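Q: Predict the bound structure with zinc ion.
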Amino acid sequence: MIIFGTKGYIYQLAILTLVCGHCGNPSAHTLRKRVTKFTLFFVPLFPFSTKHFTQCTFCGAEQQISSEQAQQLQVQSAGGGQGVQGGQPHGQAQQGQHPYQR
Ligand SMILES: [Zn+2]
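A: Predicted complex:
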């Protein structure tokens, strides 16, 4: 006898300030990833479905987004205005104004 099923996991990826499409408030949204894994004898083997959601913390509305959008939002939240760029040698040469120019 073979016992198989699915198991869902939720990962919180980021918290972002977005304008909610539901209530219209610029409020904090959580960015979550929901992964459904195939299990065999209750052991999760491999994920077969990954979905991304944002949820408004103001009204609780959930919105499904594409993984591309989720990636963009994560980049936004991680690098938000801090000028995080690879290859910066400690940034002590010029202080303040323009940490990098292109
Ligand atoms: Zn809302």
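A: The first strand starts at residue 4 and ends at 19.
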